[in-house]
Amino acid sequence: MPAESFPMLGVGAPVAAALAAVAAAWLWAALVRRVLRPYAVARAFARQGIRGPPYRLVGGGNETKEMLAATSGDTLDRSSHDFIPRVMPHYQAWTKLYGKVCLTWGGTMPMLCVGSYDMVKRILSDRSGLFRKPDPGPAILALLGMGLVFTDGEDWKRHRRVVHPAFAMDKLKTMASTMAACAAEVIGRWESLAAAAAGQVTVEVGEQFGELTADVIAHTAFGSSYRQGKEVFLAQRELQGLAFAFFSSRRFPGSNWAPTESNLRRWRLERKVRDTLLGIIHERLAAAAGGGGGYGGDLLGLMLEANAAGGDGKAAVMSMDEIVDECKTFFFAGHDTTSHLLTWAMFLLGTHPDWQRRLREEVLRECGGGAITGDALSKLKLTTMVLYETLRLYGAVTLLARRAAADTELCGVRVPRGTMLMIPIAMLHRDEDAWGADAGEFNPLRFKDGVGRAAAHPMALLAFAAGPRSCIGQDFAMMEAKAALALILRRFEFEVAPEYVHAPADFLTLQPMHGLPIVLKLLDP
């Protein structure tokens, strides 16, 4: 029968051929991405003496999940600060088998564990944009926003020029009284509870410090709009839980965008945070435009003032969405990390009464019984040392990640583009080669000559990162923590309650898994 009797055959053959070509191209790309490139990368690193667990085409992450599950029920003695076997058992196993610098895998992505301080210095000191922040994904962006933490290149420089003036030390010192006032409210409640219970009461301080630091950031960042700021705190706390649940669950392609119950809730919370922050910002802009006395002296006002000033023209001006993202960043970072710093400092002081006594004596000597000021807080040298040692042993972030934006050489190691560079902060903070034989012990005196001389490497403390991308809010966090500790030490002796279970856990930030109950003993006025 002639082909003309079946006209579709003439069309179908080219279409089928085109579809076959597309399928072949897709299969080839998948083969390269999932098989050829990973094995080629593994061989390239092996030739340089860098090895690790083998790449697996299927089920590559199961080993990590099994190790984490196996240690999730472990607890530590209170005298031990080595939570690595519990929180990072996979990194501990790999570095023991393959060395401080080893190759691991996140799906098809090569991940280089960077346990060398020299390599870390090279990565964090880079100003060329070669080592970039990885894409955090929508769950983390909903929580933190695309602020200073995640921007890169010219965007990061532009953001920093606008945000930096708000965190200048002279500005922060004016906020010390606000920090102390917020802490005094919480401590006043503790005093009432202790007085009603014959001078002694047990308090779960972790949650209370979360509320305290949220109150501080709401007042210092948003001033008279602090009530709306507390709404942002509540929404962000739920977003943090959703983000942790998302990363802990099994995912599938497109799971970030599927209309699941958790995603729908995340989108509603994200809109609420954005609308609340935009409302506060527009109120400030309207007040400034109407001659209402400027933008305000809080962090938001200082940032809006710097943004309006412009700097070097349009390049220094951020959009309203960018301002919102920076608000999300410093609100979450400003309360979450500081609350955990205070919590772990209370744990360490509660298990080291000699250091608690020394700090109390220092506080009474430098601050007396009067108002807490920024100048007085700057004189608390021992307190500063204890906080640095707390950050070393129990820093909020256990792991930093950077992505190689191009093929490069890192301290003699050739690293291909797209490799994720994983910096195991918690493990580096226990590295005896850098910190000495007592690296696993609580010894604040290692910081007596300052952070730069506390270890064999000047950039050894990585709690606030290091280099040009170090945390812009570190002075804010330290001042807030010192103000709260000073007030607590003046009014209470304390110890860790008998029921406390020492089980640090990584819920995006390092926290006591079961909270931290503290026995507070009211001191005589």
Explain the layout of strands and helices.
Layout: H1 7-47, H2 62-71, H3 84-87, H4 89-98, E1 101-106, E2 109-114, H5 117-124, E3 131-132, H6 138-144, H7 153-163, H8 169-173, H9 176-195, E4 200-204, H10 205-222, H11 226-248, H12 261-289, H13 299-309, H14 320-350, H15 353-367, H16 374-377, H17 381-394, E5 400-404, E6 408-410, E7 413-415, E8 420-423, H18 425-428, H19 432-435, H20 474-491, E9 492-496, E10 504-507, E11 509-512, E12 517-522
Parallel strand pairs: 2-8
Antiparallel strand pairs: 1-2, 3-5, 4-12, 5-8, 6-7, 9-12, 10-11
What's the β-strand tally? 12
Mean pLDDT: 90
Low-confidence stretches: none
Radius of gyration: 26 Å
Strand content: 5-15%
Q: What's the shape?
A: globular
**Which structural class fits the helix and strand makeup?**
alpha+beta
Biggest sheet: strands side by side, in what order? 1-2-8-5-3
Largest sheet: 5 strands, mixed
| Number of distinct helices | 20
